[in-house]
Specification:
This protein has about 120 residues and is mainly α. About 75% of the residues lie in helices and about 0% in strands. The chain has a single domain, classed as Serine Threonine Protein Phosphatase 5, Tetratricopeptide repeat (Alpha Horseshoe). It contains six helices and no strands. The N and C termini lie far apart (about 85 Å).
Length: about 120
């Protein structure tokens, strides 16, 4: 009796274990580098985090996955902080094209940055 029940249970477990859905996004080392940057914000941790973001973009393309939400916006913010307005606007536009719901927020930041740059 126990033997007859064991085989179907094991088969069922094997079926459920094999049904893991594929991730929609590739996040790479985002969590680790973001945590390190927030824990001790300095030039080294910032550089590592920016590198991780750029790697996420390139790996997402290679893996044929969408770039995760907020990655282009974060790259745009870092470019804005460095005074690279054209690069910043380019990243913001990429974020908006992938995630239109971010347009209200990012367009406001774009307006503020161009207003601040012209003063």
């Amino acid at each position: 009796m126990i033997t007859k029940m064991t085989v179907p249970i094991i088969a069922l477990i094997v079926c459920f274990v094999g049904c893991k859905p594929d991730a929609l996004y590739y996040w790479g080392d985002y969590s680790e580098t973001y945590y390190a940057y927030k824990k001790s914000p300095n030039a080294e941790t910032l550089a590592k985090h920016k590198l991780a973001l750029l790697k996420i973009v390139s790996e997402s393309t290679l893996r044929r996955k969408a770039v995760p939400p907020g990655v282009y916006a974060e790259l745009g913010y870092f470019a804005y902080q460095e005074g690279k307005m054209n690069e910043s606007n380019s990243y913001f536009q990429k974020e908006i094209s992938l995630y239109p719901e971010s347009s209200i927020f990012l367009n406001r930041i774009n307006t503020e940055s161009t207003r601040g740059a012209s003063q």
